[in-house]
Design brief:
This protein has 204 residues and is α/β, with parallel strands linked by helices. The chain has a single domain, classed as Beta-carbonic Anhydrase, Chain A, CATH 3.40.1050. The protein contains seven helices and five strands. The protein has a five-stranded mixed β-sheet. A hairpin with a 6-residue loop joins strand 4 and strand 5. The longest helix has 22 residues. The chain is globular and about 50 Å long. The two termini are 19 Å apart. 39% of the residues are buried.
Length: 204
């Protein structure tokens, strides 16, 4: 499945999700148990956050085997995440990668708080995540071009998504080659916990 069709399926799935959750309807899907003999053929890769409120399969109303989901706090593109995405694109021919950020992201808030207040208040392990988010967030904090703290967090989240998109392109020759060959698109998006809507940034 090409990237444009895959993106359209994600958009339509999110619209079904929003409609069902807005109306209080039961969100159902036909689920066929995956067969080991058939292997897997996910039509999109989602690099998302570990936040329990943003399960990609539900947000995009997809079933087993549809999505190859990589989740880590702050949707960062560290080596293990990049390797997982390379694996999916090379072995399954998946042509669309979406980096999915979301509102009220704890990893973004922790990074902003560390930059403007007390960086010693977080554990060394959480600091390893903050350190990876900081290069994207620091310019946003330094510019001070935000209306309030909520606006700052949103701008920082968006910058972090775009930074992860860039890292996937720059730090993976394999993914970059697929992009150059017209076999892969990597785009950013954000999920609103308030509305359930996924806003796609467009091709990056």
């Amino acid at each position: 499945m090409n990237a444009d069709l895959a993106l359209q399926k994600l958009i339509e799935g999110n619209q079904r999700y929003v409609s069902a959750t807005t109306d209080g309807a039961e969100l159902t899907t036909t689920i066929k148990r995956a067969s080991a003999d058939e292997g897997q053929k996910p039509f999109a890769v989602i690099l998302g956050c570990s936040d329990s409120r943003v399960p990609a399969e539900l947000v995009f109303h997809r079933g087993l085997g549809d999505l190859f989901v990589v989740r880590v706090a702050g949707n960062i593109a560290a080596p293990s995440q990049i390797g997982s995405i390379e694996f999916a694109c090379q072995n399954f021919g998946t042509e669309l990668v979406v980096v999915l950020g979301h509102s009220h992201c704890g990893a973004i808030k922790a990074t902003v708080d560390a930059l403007i207040s007390d960086p010693e208040s977080i554990s060394p392990n959480v600091a390893s995540i903050v350190d990876r988010v900081t290069p994207a967030v620091l310019p946003v904090v330094a510019k001070q071009e935000h209306a309030d703290h909520s606006d700052l967090i949103h701008n920082a989240m968006r910058a972090n998504v775009e930074h992860s998109v860039m890292n996937l392109q720059l730090r993976s020759p394999e993914l970059r080659n697929l992009i150059d060959e017209g076999k892969l698109k990597i785009i950013g998006a954000e999920y609103s916990i308030e509305t359930g809507v996924v806003d796609f940034y467009g091709d990056d």
